[in-house]
Write a structure and sequence with these properties.
Strand order of the largest sheet: 4-3-5-13-6-14
Strand content: 15-25%
Helix content: 25-40%
Largest sheet: 6 strands, mixed
Length: 359
């Protein structure tokens, strides 16, 4: 074995080292060192035996000494060849590992955050999303439409990371992270409806008309929050045909079959010539929140929430650092022993008038 001494190379040696070996030649040398057979080495490398022989001779000329002893019966490494193999193999493996790791990084999908949106929520969140992108330029932001008839299934199935939804939300496995914004409530009626000529109406008028029924796997409190069962005075609110999308709501409203609460974004993003949007003067504002699975509060989800707070949103009671005067947005249960009428009034006084919103 050659001793591990490294005398300073002479000019000729430096020239040869500077010229260096090609990576393919190194691979050929290492393969022949393992196989000790030109034919098997060529087969393994998918080249001709002549190519293997040429590469080894070129390396030997560059080094200035034989690396292999060759006879008609066997191939054996010389002591110098063994020394070169000992030094080259780990370096070559490091090179291969580095290339493989960088290639894997290049092929790895970028960090992705998928936001579930209902209707115009993506547009309403434009400043938040632009701010998030400026802070997370390497993150790919994707969108998936979520319908009010099935607001939480995509979140629970992992199809989206977070959902912008109306409040209140009180689900044991979901977190209301931030309250994004609020806006006035409108009442959608047909353009030729008796109410269409009025500038403002009260929630009490819902007792004189029917509203849509909501289809889908919806929590009972959430349905009541969207469409209360009773007016503020305790009168029952009649249910009409079942709907699953906002365009089904628009169709029913346009025919005059139903009236329906709707946030102001409906008037701004979905104006219809045959539908009027009336102000409900005694309805609390509609609030929207960013919702996520409690067990999947990823750093990217929190980064989006933080971007929202830096653009005016506030933390809810359970979603993160509490904002000033913030409170959880949960469902309002019926008072113990209370009447349905009292329950209806309590829902209305606690954001129960949160309406259907465009999607």
């Amino acid at each position: 074995m050659i001793r591990d001494r490294h005398p300073a190379p002479d000019p000729e040696t430096r020239r040869r080292v500077r010229d260096g070996m090609e990576l393919r030649d190194i691979e050929i040398f290492l393969t022949l060192a393992e196989e000790l057979h030109f034919g098997r080495s060529a087969e393994r490398l998918k080249v001709s035996p002549a190519r293997v022989s040429q590469a080894i001779k070129k390396q030997e000329r560059r080094i200035g000494a034989p690396l292999f002893e060759r006879t008609s019966r066997h191939v054996r490494m010389t002591p110098l060849g063994e020394e070169l193999h000992r030094r080259l193999k780990p370096a070559y493996e490091d090179i291969q590992a580095a290339v493989a790791e960088v290639t894997a990084i290049a092929r790895r999908p970028p960090s992705v955050l998928t936001l579930g949106v209902m209707g115009a929520q993506m547009h309403e969140m434009r400043s938040v999303l632009d701010h998030f992108r400026s802070r997370q330029p390497a993150v790919e932001l994707r969108f998936k439409e979520v319908f009010f008839s099935d607001p939480f299934s995509a979140l629970r199935a992992g199809e989206v990371d977070t959902v912008a939804a109306w409040l209140p939300v009180r689900e044991p496995d979901l977190t209301v992270g931030v309250v994004l914004r609020e806006e006035p409530l409108r009442l959608m009626v047909a353009a030729d409806h008796p109410l269409a000529g009025q500038e403002t109406v009260s929630m009490e008028v819902l007792g004189d008309h029917q509203v849509p029924s909501l289809a889908g796997p919806l929590p009972a409190y959430w349905v009541s929050a969207v469409l209360p069962l009773y007016t503020p005075a305790g009168r029952p609110i009649r249910r009409g045909p079942s709907v699953a999308t906002f365009y089904e709501v628009l169709a029913l409203v346009a025919t005059g079959d139903v009236v329906c609460p709707c946030p102001d974004e409906g008037r701004r993003y979905y104006p219809q010539p045959d539908i009027a949007f009336l102000t409900i003067h005694d309805a609390p504002p509609v609030q929207w929140g960013l919702i996520w699975r409690t067990d999947r509060a990823t750093p990217l989800v929190h980064a989006l929430a933080e971007a929202a707070t830096e653009r005016g949103a506030r933390w809810s009671g359970s979603g993160g650092p509490p904002g000033p005067a913030s409170s959880p947005h949960g469902a309002v249960a019926a008072p113990a022993g209370g009447t349905p009428e009292a329950h209806g009034r309590s829902l209305l006084s606690a954001q129960a008038t949160t309406p259907l919103h465009p999607q």
